[in-house]
Write a structure and sequence with these properties.
The chain is of the alpha/beta class and 334 residues long. It is 29% helix and 16% strand. It has 11 helices and 11 strands. Helix 3 packs parallel to helix 4 and helix 8 packs parallel to helix 10. The N terminus is likely disordered. One of its GO terms (molecular function) is phosphoric diester hydrolase activity.
């Protein structure tokens, strides 16, 4: 017979599995780590910890992807202080030509103004830092997703309204990356300090919207593309092993491939039978991506090919040790 304690243990396995790789974001404190990155360093050379569905803290195990440090983008501030520098922001068109943050049908208790204002405040206090942001139009209108409010301006027209009218956006958006008709080249660190670099705007079905973002990501579609690994369908907990291998192989490509190119490696995945916390931390007896990645990054060339950079690692529920480990590779740039 199950006791009350055993019921609790069954219901909260993710909390019990917390370790240096998983669900321990607040154990990392790296608010100024980019200060040591040389101005001449290309964005492509920098190892950047990032988060997938960066604002997804509500809705239960199927939708939550990050630890909850508070609504109105307070969780974003916690990630910034830990050292996260790439964010995956999913937006719904709402009344008044505004954006609200969603994961599928679930409102994440934050609006795009919250995102911009928290990034603005952080970059104002830490001007040597820079942030990379991917924006995606979240609503597909399909079952399980959201539907944009009708009668509003188009998604990109609303984005331009924020760009042109939000004081935070005007201070922080790196202008070459937020132009509808012209993409930006890969910047160096000295050009983007205290700014938000837009990597891409993706439409609701994937694919790049107009020319917003960085030119290298012109082919950023739903799932994998030339410079992006995003095999997000993990059909069951046994398939977490396949996801681990996809992350590993793309990390190897990041190190052996074009060293002038940016690589974005999504460590996340989910399905009805492998929820985000299980893919990240482990489930069904299968090691999660996060603990695997922490071990892999700590191994030397006697075990596998050299890792001298990680690219942009997009994680669910990252732990403090894993964030610190990714940042540590930037010592090679000095």
């Amino acid at each position: 017979m199950l006791t009350p304690l055993s019921l609790v243990l069954l219901l909260v396995p993710a909390i019990l599995a917390a370790d240096g790789s998983y669900r321990t974001l607040s154990t990392a404190s790296n608010p100024d780590w980019m200060m040591k990155v040389p101005d001449s360093a290309s964005l492509a050379s920098i190892s950047i910890p990032g988060t997938h569905e960066s604002m997804s803290i509500s809705g239960g195990d199927l939708t939550e992807c990050q630890e909850d440090f508070g609504a109105s983008a307070d969780s974003l501030t916690a990630q910034l202080n830990a050292g996260i520098r790439m964010f995956d922001i999913r937006l719904r068109v709402n009344d008044g030509n505004t954006f609200t943050v969603h994961h599928g049908a679930v409102y994440q208790n934050a609006n795009f103004d919250d995102v911009l204002n928290k990034l603005d405040a952080f970059l104002g206090a830490h001007p040597a830092e820079a942030v990379v942001m991917r924006v995606k139009q979240e609503c597909t209108g399909e079952l399980g997703s959201c539907t944009d409010v009708s009668g509003q301006a188009s998604f990109i027209d609303i984005f331009d309204m924020y760009r042109d009218n939000s004081p935070a956006a005007q201070r922080r958006l790196w202008a070459p990356s937020v132009q509808r008709g012209s993409a930006a080249g890969t910047p160096i660190m000295g050009a983007i300090r205290s700014h938000i670099v837009l990597a891409v705007i993706n439409g609701p079905q994937g694919g790049r919207t107009e020319q917003y973002g960085l030119s290298q990501f012109s082919g950023w579609n739903d799932g994998d593309s030339a410079w992006v690994q995003d095999n997000y369908n993990v059909p069951n907990t046994g398939a977490i092993a396949t996801k681990r291998d996809q992350v590993r192989r793309f990390l190897d490509t990041t190190n052996a491939g074009d060293q002038t190119a940016m690589y974005v490696n999504f460590c996340s995945g989910s399905s009805l039978f492998a929820e985000p916390y299980q893919v990240a931390g482990g489930g069904g007896g299968t090691q999660g991506v996060n603990p695997f990645l922490l071990i892999y990054l700590g191994q030397g060339t006697d075990v596998h090919a050299e890792v001298h950079r990680t690219g942009m690692m997009m994680m669910d529920f990252p732990g403090g040790d894993l964030i610190n480990k990714i940042i540590s590779f930037n010592a090679l740039l000095v």
